[in-house]
Amino acid sequence: MLQLCLSWLGLGPVAASPWLLLLLVGASWLLARVLAWTYTFYDNCRRLQCFPQPPKQNWFWGHQGLVTPTEEGMKTLTQLVTTYPQGFKLWLGPTFPLLILCHPDIIRPITSASAAVAPKDMIFYGFLKPWLGDGLLLSGGDKWSRHRRMLTPAFHFNILKPYMKIFNKSVNIMHDKWQRLASEGSARLDMFEHISLMTLDSLQKCVFSFESNCQEKPSEYIAAILELSAFVEKRNQQILLHTDFLYYLTPDGQRFRRACHLVHDFTDAVIQERRRTLPTQGIDDFLKNKAKSKTLDFIDVLLLSKDEDGKELSDEDIRAEADTFMFEGHDTTASGLSWVLYHLAKHPEYQEQCRQEVQELLKDREPIEIEWDDLAQLPFLTMCIKESLRLHPPVPVISRCCTQDIVLPDGRVIPKGAHSLRGRSLLGSKREHQGEVTSGFYSLLGRAQKLHRAGVRHG
Questions:
Q1: For a Cys staple, 451 with which of 20, 386, 446, 456, CB 3.0–4.6 Å?
Q2: CA-wise closest residue to 369 among 250, 449, 459
Q3: Are 62 and 167 contained in the same domain?
Q4: Cα gap 39→303, rounded to integer Å
């Protein structure tokens, strides 16, 4: 039998059984992996020393908890960007460095890099995966390109124009609620909470043609979406729960899973009901009936979409895109609208100028509603909205993971494997969200003008 000498372990020759050889091979492989990871980690640490970092909160947790999703956290982040205007480094735990890039010149090499060089960082985006699936937010490569082409018709002016009536109706409901609360003596309102419900109400009508009345009564579906958003943000702050196995053992993880099922069941039911309608009615008849009601919702567009080869989207793909738009559409728009109101409240002279511009546009008009063609007739208000989006973009950062070294203009190098958060390019933020924020805010102001004439003042 083959003899194996282990004198270096203080053992004499022993019989080398297959299991012992397998154990040695496995241990050698594991040791090699650990040594390789250790070398890469320390090499990256050495190369990242050129990026400044604020004092750590804790030797083990690093900067975890330094920037919280609160007003104080926003002030802290603002101060950090002021102190380190080009960018800085944070440690999430002892072994996870995260680069925060701020200056446009520093961001540009990553912005211009291909998706293969700087793909989406799924460590963060992955928390959304069980909820949003492979929608546009999380997918990449050929699948992203194919879906993006198929979804382009959903943003045609002829489809978007009728949504103005939906926005006006949702805003009217919100303003009526504010008027009622004010008459009952409510001195304070959480604007973001009310506007979030308004945007969710609008989206359910635009995406599903569904009347939830969520602004006036509780909705399980809406509550689940708000709950899922909160859980994702909370999990992001708890590095020990980034592992799926551990997270789903916690009460939050179990509630997250239940909320996902509820949202998916709702979307699946709408898709199945709409699919049953299409074959029996026929696409031409279906489109004629939709033309009479002047609304073609997002589910309709997805069901009718085909790629260059004539292939349709699967039910799973449609659900992913619909859920993605419900999440991305409501939160970004509500955030953008809330900041616009905040900035106008801080500058009453500009608020009054916006009001006068709307008054001039809507004078002698009945009913007093903003229409699609009005959007180009409010230049000063448009500038205020754009400036608010510049100061507080709805999506302030996006995350990327570098698959190869990226050289910055000042000669510093972001090493392969590094994770980075980069401030959203201002132009990108405006182009992506300006349309929905602008339309929603014009609808809001149109209703406010009606109340103003009736003697109810809104700041």
A1: 456
A2: 449
A3: no
A4: 51
